[in-house]
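Contributing: when you submit paired examples, paste them exactly as shown. First protein:
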Amino acid sequence: MKRKPLVGILMGSDSDLPVMEKAAAVLDEMGVPFEIDISSAHRLPEKTAEYAKSARGRGIEVIIAGAGMAAHLAGVIASHTTLPVIGVPLASGALNGVDALYATVQMPPGIPVATVAVDGGKNAAYLACSILSIKFPEIGDMLEAQREETRMQLLEKSKKLQAKVREGQ
């Protein structure tokens, strides 16, 4: 039996899918159920507003929204819900994501959007997991295990590098 989604992933267009799939992969790895869809703030404003307004009632607890260029998707969603919204500015257009970063991070008081790096789909998912870990300790346990695994891999790489350096001296 499939559990109800806890995270909603939205993107402005299908061209955003490669970055947003990275968020989906992290959520899969952490065992966090999610849903994913396309919903443009400018081309599908009614769908976007309805998604945001209905999310809490459908069991969604965090929304990840990725968009490029004008990147109003996360802000529009945040204006229609009090759920945590994580914005992922996407590299596109003449400014290669800087415009999307500014549009996502510069929200007016009272309508916050947590913003990750340009093309930061993975970190958006990790942040969503951190938020969810407040209510679901097992997600926090998964995060801690993932961080420990990363630490161990880095220590192993460091040992190999140091051995290689010693051999070359």
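Second protein:
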Amino acid sequence: MSTFKLALAQMPVIGGRVEENLRCASKYIAQAAAAGAAIVLLPEALDCGWCHSSALTDTGSIPDGKACQHLREAAKAHHIHVCAGLIECAGDQLFNSAVLISPEGEVLLHHRKLNELAMAHHLYACGDRLAVAHTPLGTIGLMICADGFAPGQTISRTLGLMGAQIILSPCAWAVPPDHDNHQDPYGQLWLDHYGVVAKEFDLWIAGASNVGLVTEGEWSGHQCIGCSLVMNPAGETALHGPYGVDAAGLLLVDIELRAQPLRGTGEPE
């Protein structure tokens, strides 16, 4: 059994302000380490912002690009696992990617988003990988935002079959500017898709979303509103972050990972 503290950084992300966003990420990494967290989960596309055109000029490679190196150095400096979403330049393609970095600053997982929304296809290529990492804390899987509601929860279920005990998901959850959270509370989509997989595979799923305005693309004017979420292996909510374009903050939750049996569908009928 492994027990540790997970931090979710519900941080502001400003489209096109890469240096500022990376400094903000470093601040949350330091705060998470000071709070005793073993892992800090940061949002999707935290360098450029989701669907922002700065990705065409301001991105680098993984693991050696500027943004990834910045996070690797922060992880090593504070001796903490860091999971974060970054836009990746690979040859003539851009990927909406995420990494899991060890406390020694090494990239343990490198995921490229598979279930990207159609409106982002002009910018990001389709992902090409899915994996888990066996760490001293437990077996960790990685997905990004809409990967969580791929048809039939294909991606999260596959990570479960691969032995993931916790799935980490950098996210950018946004609502229209006229959204009324009192009449239509945000988050049921994620509760439904996270909960059923968490319970079926006896695992944890954590999604951390940024806060702030979407300033480019089809969703320009939408608001990223946090509501970061952690579901436990019973399919119950262990943490639900505050809602709002200004609801920045560091959230903490205790994670308990039990040894997992081998998984599969058994003998054919």
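If you have annotations for the second protein, write them as plain sentences, like these:
The first helix runs from residue 18 to 34.
The chain has a mean pLDDT of 96.
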